[in-house]
Amino acid sequence: MLAILRDLLRYNLEFRIGLVLVSIVVVMAGLSFVSPYPPGDVYVVPPDVPPSAAYWLGTTSRGQDVFWQLTFAIRNTLSFGIMVAVLSRIIALVVGLLAGYSGGWVDRVLMSINDTFIIIPLFPILILFYFVLRDSMSTPLLATIMACLGWAYDARLIRSVALSLKTREFTQTSIFSGMKTREILAREHLPYVLPIVFSTTMNNMNWSIGIEVTLAVLGFTDINAPTIGGMIYWANQHTALVAGIWWWIAFPVALVVMTFVGLFLLAVSMNEYIDPRSRLARMGGGG
Amino acid sequence: MSAYPAYLAKRLVQFALVVFIGVNLAFVITHASPIDPVEQSISAVTSFGSTAPEAIAAMRTSLQELYGLTGTLGEQYLTFWSRVLRGDFGPSLSAFPTPVSALIGRALPWTAGLLIVSTMITWVLGNLLGGLAGYYQRNRMLKLMGVVAMGVHPIPYYIVALLLLIVFGFLWPVLPITGGSAMNLQQGWNWPFVSSVLLHSILPALSLILIGLGSWFLGMRSLVSNVVTEDYVVYAEIAGLDSRRVLGSYVMRNALAPQVTGLAMSLGGIFNGAVITEKVFGYPGVGTLLVDAVYAGDYGLVLGVTTVSIIAVSVGVLVIDLLYPLIDPRVELR
Fold first, then answer.
1. Do B262 and B289 contact (CB within 8 A), yes or no?
2. Which residue of A183, B10, B20, B68 is most buried, as measured by CB atoms within 10 A?
3. Does the beta-carbon distance from B294 to A249 stay under 8 Å?
4. Is the ipTM of this complex over 0.90?
5. What is the pLDDT of residues A210-253, one digit of tens each?
6. pTM summary value
């Protein structure tokens, strides 16, 4: 694992840029633990101050320091993304490995359901969820719902790997040595699909954070928990752009764009590392 | 085309499954609600005053039927399905007594027009540029385009729409930033109205195109750079075929098939972008309708838009799937 990281660092520019961007974002999230202000408090600093030495990124119309507010927001947004990614990875792994290994009707049924989830438009469904739950819609609940809706595409990727693993000799050996299906999947096949799981994790985080921001901007999440989308929501509520308080929107937007680009570059560079053909091309072997 | 009937049957089953699961999901979600939608809806209407008692009673029955609250759970389920299949979602509360189906019918052409046109542009442009970038890998311009695509691609719709709004609404105000057309025009096939619709669609369409372009570009580029190394391409090149001919009829043609599947699969996600884009630019489509319905607490309208969008997306996927064998003859074998 360490050797892979060293290789990526040395040969892959995208990985380096991605790592720098994500590190900045993570440090920012870490700073929330030493914030001088509690995240929920308003009017703790003078409102509407532009960026200055005292308030690095300015203050909001609600009297919050943008910098410290941003640390909480990005922490919540990141942990939301991780929550969704971990939960949906578990579903994707179980479905993908099982469908690929079992084949036959199990595969057909699972993949029919899988394709359905790929096609169904999620956004209206999420809005419907918010609509019926409203006040009881909390961040963990939203994360669970999104995980249940967002595993399908990655399950297909995992299945395609599992299909090829199934025909390999070591699978036959394990079957003859009397291992149960569950053991074969967990001990023999899982290590082979883990690289894919890692790279899809980044993409899934991007996907979930994107939808969370979008929902929050419309006010369709728990807007009292500070998140990036929540900050933009409150800025819009106070018509920050019209009033010229541009820093209230610009900095959250800049930070979330950094998160997106960073995670995306990490996913892309890992994908390239996994796919031997593009690795060959990079080293000058092919095309 | 001997295997086509089997293929057709498989796709139709898939289509039915999507609609079935989607509508069931809507049923389950609405029944999981801790709030009583009927009483809440009624109090929303009566708070404006001046509604006749008979009208309220009629509404209560209609709403109870709509949300599937009369009879046993099995009966509720059947009532719900029969109303969905008839496209009857009852009266809208925020625009009482206009039926929900009429509101959706009015908004649907706007969304469909915007989405179909911008998706087509995005898909064609992204695949063309991506194909070129995969084939001419040494070209500086195309390399730069790849870097830009990587940077823009992961940014969420809302942020791009917002940036466009700031640039063309505040910094350099040249384009209309809100609405579907100018207010004072007669709707119909007359030039002032059509041109106004086109002008108003530029920014929303641009935001959708900018976001979608990157993934098609990157996808096509990697597909093409894989096809380029295939034996038949190398052979065609050694045989001295014109490079444009090789790219057009050998490389692009074979790399395009997965992108058509991708188009079908991306349709579901397109609605996410449409909802937020329409809201940001005040475009009078289904997305704006949905968001406003949530703000207004309009239960029937939210349910109606959700169900219609599920059905619309599945129809789109079905159409693309049915056209697919015409593009790629190999698909019949599966």
1. no
2. B68
3. no
4. no
5. 888 888 888 888 888 888 888 988 888 888 877 888 888 888 88
6. 0.82
